[in-house]
Amino acid sequence: KYVLWNGKILDQDDKEVSVSYEDRGYQFGDGVYEVIRIYQGAIHLLDWHLDRLFYSMKEIDIVPPFTREQLIEQLRDVIKANQFQADGKLYIQVTRGEQPRDHLYEPNLQAVYYAIVTPFEKPVDMWENGVTVMLQEDIRWLRCDIKSLNLLPNVMARTTAQKNGYDEPLFYRDGIVRECGASNFFLVKDQALVTHPTDHHILGGITRKQVIRLAKELGIPVYEREIDLNELEKAHECFLTATPLEIVPITQIDEKKMNGGAFGPITKKLFRYYQEKIP
Ligand code: PDD
Known about the structure:
Layout (H helix, E strand, L loop, with lengths): L1 E4 L2 E4 L12 H5 L2 E9 L2 E2 L2 H14 L8 H14 L6 E8 L16 E8 L4 H6 L1 E7 L14 H12 L4 E6 L2 E5 L3 E6 L2 E4 L10 H12 L4 E3 L2 E2 L8 E6 L3 E8 L2 E2 L7 H12 L3
Parallel strand pairs: 7-8, 7-15, 11-12
Antiparallel strand pairs: 1-2, 1-6, 3-4, 3-5, 5-6, 8-9, 9-13, 10-11, 10-14, 14-15, 15-16
Protein name: D-alanine aminotransferase
Keywords: Aminotransferase, Pyridoxal phosphate, Transferase
Enzyme class: transferase
């Protein structure tokens, strides 16, 4: 198996493929990442993912170790090197670089990055059965728009959900529903979609963006506004969106069962159209 390692395509067992203990990503979580879908060897919605990766780097002041064109070429190269033609995921991570441990970072550090390709089968089980979510207070920071490596609150929330018999956490803050642990949240109300606006409280999901685009093409109205916790009581359908999972119906929020434990009609329509639009 080959990996993209700081601009080179290397065998994963190559000696060069190793992280320094002084890497700021390792010590501080000082870095950002992307998860991108590959369908039949082709990278999906790459432009939007690159926009977000460059945005994340800019927001935390990492000097990109590549140009956009270089990275695109290198990502294609790593897929080619692995002769990867199946469905999978691309994981890209950029950390600020190496230096003796100090909260303050040195200027002009050489950022460290890698990308790997892993096979990923369509999550048919989740599509058939949906997922259950557990409401949890959002204890994350106030820059959730940055796709940062610091995922400890998400990890803890997912664990809490699982321990309580749920699949995923659903975060709320100040009485407003924000997003799930690793996905965005949508609600269907009066035949329209409602989802949190893109601000510092959520990650601006690429799947979210695609779903909004496709809903508009289908003539389904979309409202990007805050969802009050009380509104969950009256919701007809709910679903989550994320790169690996695409669109997954939510069948239960805390004790409340949703939509008879299956895809609601609007969710189903969107799901089908989403599939159609995968080249
Ligand atoms: N997570 N919100 C959060 C907090 C996320 O971590 C993710 C994605 C999303 C959905 O974004 P997108 O549609 O661009 O995948 C929303 C990735 C998949 C992860 O951490 O593995």
